[in-house]
Specification:
Length: 198
C-alpha cells in the first residue's frame, strides 16, 4: 500500500459485532507507485483499535486475488454506512459510488455491492453520507462550485432512492477571502513554524 484515504466512518454491524471500514487505496509496484492500479479496500475490527484486512479475492492484482480489494473501479466507494433498520437485508449497507457524481448503491454485507437503479446525484471530489435515525433521513453533503471555489450542498432522502436538493449550501464568503490573505501572511511571517514545502 502506498496511501489510504477514507470518506466513511467505521460502521458498526450490530449483528456481526464488528466494525467495517472502506478505504481508497493506492499501491506500489516494488518501491514505485503503480499508477495503473488502485481502488477500494476493506478492513474490519472487533474493538475499533485492532484492524484486519480480510482477503476478498474480488480483484486480481499482479496475477493474484489474495488481497482485500473490492471489485469497484478506482476511487469508487466514496461513502458507506450501515442501516440496521432497513427491512430488506440486501440493502442494509448503503453507499455512494463515484469520484465525479454519486451513484447510490446497496449491499447485504458491505463487501458485495450493487448500484441502485436511481439517478446519479451531482457532485465532485469530496462528499459525506450520514443517517439521521431520529428523523429517518439520509443526509449527503456533496461538493459543487460556488462564488469562491469549493462549496458543499446538502441533499436528503428518506428511501435512499429519491434525493432532494435542500438548496442549503456551506461556502466561503467575501469575509473569508479577506481573512485568508491576512492569515496566510501571518503564517508565513512566523519563523517558529515550519515553512511550506513546494
Amino acid at each position: 500500500e502506498m496511501s489510504l484515504q477514507t470518506r466513511s466512518a467505521p460502521a458498526w454491524d450490530e449483528q456481526a459485532k464488528i466494525y467495517k471500514l472502506w478505504m481508497i487505496t493506492s499501491v506500489r509496484q516494488g518501491s514505485e507507485p503503480d499508477p495503473n492500479f488502485g481502488g477500494v479496500t476493506y478492513a474490519e475490527s472487533t474493538d475499533g483499535v485492532h484492524w484486519t484486512k480480510p482477503i476478498q479475492r474480488q480483484r486480481e492484482y499482479h496475477g493474484s486475488r489474495e488481497n482485500n480489494f473490492l471489485e469497484f473501479e478506482t476511487n469508487s466507494m466514496e461513502n458507506a454506512l450501515y442501516h440496521a433498520e432497513d427491512p430488506d437485508p440486501t440493502r442494509r449497507y448503503k453507499g455512494l459510488l463515484g469520484a465525479l457524481g454519486r451513484r447510490p448503491a446497496a449491499s447485504p454485507d458491505g463487501i458485495h455491492w450493487q448500484r441502485l437503479d436511481v439517478p446519479e446525484i451531482p457532485s465532485g471530489d469530496e462528499s459525506n453520507l450520514s443517517y439521521d435515525r431520529a428523523n429517518g433521513t439520509f443526509i449527503a453533503t456533496l461538493k459543487t462550485d460556488g462564488p469562491y471555489g469549493r462549496v458543499h450542498g446538502i441533499w436528503t432522502s428518506k428511501d435512499f432512492k429519491t434525493w432532494t436538493n435542500t438548496n442549503v449550501i456551506f461556502h466561503a464568503d467575501e469575509n473569508d477571502q479577506r481573512l485568508a490573505v491576512t492569515n496566510i501572511r501571518a503564517r508565513l511571517a512566523d519563523a517558529t513554524l515550519q515553512q511550506p514545502v513546494y
